[in-house]
Design goal:
Length: about 550
């Protein structure tokens, strides 16, 4: 490779690394250092002290239990959804795929508000006693992650060679036996990869557990938030952050290895089949998932947003979004918070797309040198680190370090600049995981042929790589914008009074005892949900079959 090309690829790899080093690694390490130092000296006494408390193990146990149970539920419901949406041929399949993608990007406070409206006081399922229970937390986590299973397993299933299963059927095996003995083992890499990702997302959930579980069902993420915000106990928070990082790092390693197995296992594109009577049980499970797990909480949220404090139907909650009542606990209007959220999300999306595109281009290369290949794999893993660190830890770490950082004569903590930076860090892995499979699917010989014919490296990128990622980039844009718009964990630390984002406003309104505050919070949650859902449905128009598999 010419020297100019090596310099260009070096800069493309260096920019994301420098960004993460300054705005992610430094803040997180600074918070950990604060928890493990005393008067400038190392003090590790907090480790045995924190792990000697019964509540620490209770929180860790609840985190593992919530994540494990939600993973099982998501798999049981997501695999039938993958079959229906990727193997059966019927009208409206593409629309249903897009609709089932929406739950994954809905803000956590919206989903928490929806399940609270469903099973909480005054809800239609209040009689079940599920409010503030482990069950409702698990169901809410599954609400998000059925989509992950559907897309990960379905994307693989749609490209799986069906001839071995057909051969088994020809030799006398029934449909169930053929699926269990042939198809299921072939799907194992994708199912295991989906399970590790779902476990990862559930183990780091913040908004859902905070809204639905409270202190009784805290996980590591919400416990870090409680320790830092309510008690300023940085030592205990730092120890829990290390425990969370160890759990999630293991999930990331497993997911990375299984993802590579999945990428190498695809044989050819399979043909879809028409639904028949024998598919009825699977279709029924899929229909029940969509109607009960997804539609029912959202419809309940929508209906209850039109109920007044006295129980009658009203549009007052939506009027309060524009003209807040005197007793409103927030400064300014909800509509103003929505406008601010959109502006911040636009900036975060632009930043995440720029960095994500650079990362995907670098990580998709497969040089002949084994050392370079290992370096690229390490680079890819480093970019995924934000998935393994608490957003709460990131937000608090930014507050600790961004007072005139690197000699800049400006306190970044006093402005909204840090919010899009934090949101871009959260969205970056989604952008990379959406674009990277498309780039890795490009035949390397195409690039070699173009270079042999005299095309410069930039022209190869323009005519081959950029041409292939066009539609997947649109989907990545949607994911980044929706994730930024709904980000809550880090943003909750960085917002200022009078300049709050919409998710923070929703959480404050729902939890405030003022008359009419809860109904206004539900209306604000509907507004936030409509914005994110609209963004994702628009982005789905640019979806490619190989894009968006996490």
């Amino acid at each position: 490779m010419p020297r100019a090309g090596r310099i260009g690829w070096g800069i493309a790899a260096l920019l994301p690394l420098v960004f993460l080093a300054v705005f992610f690694v430094w803040p997180v390490l600074a918070l950990l250092a604060t928890g493990f130092t005393d008067d400038g000296r190392a003090d590790l006494a907090g480790i045995p002290e924190v792990f000697g408390e019964a509540r620490t193990w209770r929180v860790i146990g609840q985190t593992l239990a919530q994540a494990s149970l939600a993973t099982v539920v998501a798999l049981l419901l997501g695999i039938p959804a993958a079959f229906v949406l990727y193997r059966l041929e019927f009208r409206g399949r593409g629309l249903l795929r897009g609709l089932l993608t929406v739950p994954f990007v809905l803000p956590t406070v919206v989903v928490g508000a929806a399940f609270t409206a469903l099973v909480g006081p005054g809800g239609p399922l209040q009689w079940t006693g599920l409010d503030r229970s482990m069950t409702v937390i698990v169901l809410a986590l599954a609400f998000f992650n059925v989509t992950v299973v559907m897309r990960t397993v379905g994307g693989f299933w749609g490209n799986l060679d069906t001839r071995p299963e057909q051969a088994a059927r020809t030799l006398g095996a029934g449909p169930v036996r053929a699926w269990c003995t042939v198809t299921l083992p072939a799907l194992a890499p994708a199912i295991a990869s989906a399970a590790s990702l779902v476990f990862l997302f559930c183990a780091t959930s913040f908004g859902v557990v905070l809204v639905l579980g409270g202190r009784e069902f805290s996980n590591i993420e919400t416990e870090i938030y409680r320790l830092t915000v309510q008690f300023l106990d940085l030592r205990s928070a730092a120890v829990l952050s290390l425990a969370q990082f160890a759990i999630v790092a293991l999930a990331l390693v497993v997911s990375s290895r299984l993802r590579r197995r999945r990428e190498h296992a695809v044989a050819r594109r399979a043909e879809s089949v028409r639904p028949t009577r024998r598919h009825a049980p699977v279709v029924a499970i899929f229909a029940a998932t969509v109607l009960v797990l997804h539609a029912l909480p959202i419809l309940t949220l929508l209906l209850r947003s039109f109920r007044g404090a006295g129980g009658g139907w009203t549009l007052g909650n939506y009027a309060n979004l524009i003209f807040p009542p005197p007793e409103s606990p927030i400064e300014g209007s909800v509509l103003g918070a929505a406008a601010l959220s959109l502006r911040i999300a636009l900036a975060a999306t632009a930043l995440a797309m720029l960095l994500g595109l650079l990362v995907a281009l670098v990580a998709s290369r497969r040089p002949r040198s084994r050392t370079l290949r290992r370096g690229i794999d390490l680079f890819d893993g480093l970019i995924m680190l934000p998935l393994g660190v608490s957003a709460v830890t990131l937000g608090f770490g930014l507050l600790l370090t961004m007072h005139r950082p690197l000699g800049i004569g400006f306190d970044l903590r006093s402005s909204v600049v840090l919010i899009p930076i934090a949101q871009a860090i959260v969205a970056l892995p989604l952008v990379v995981r959406t674009i990277l499979p498309v780039l890795r699917g490009i035949e390397p010989r195409l690039r070699d042929a173009a270079a042999t014919l005299g095309a410069s490296p930039l022209r190869v990128l323009a005519t081959i790589d950029f041409a292939m990622i066009g539609r997947s980039a649109g989907l990545a844009l949607g994911f980044a914008f929706a994730a930024s718009l709904g980000e809550f964990g880090a943003t909750a630390f960085l917002v200022r009074p009078g300049a709050q984002t919409l998710p923070v406003v929703v959480a404050e309104l729902i939890g405030h005892p003022a008359r009419g505050s809860y109904g206004t919070g539900l209306a604000a949650a509907v507004l936030l949900g409509v914005l994110t859902a609209g963004i994702m449905m628009l982005a789905e128009r640019w979806r490619t079959d190989s894009a968006g598999e996490w």
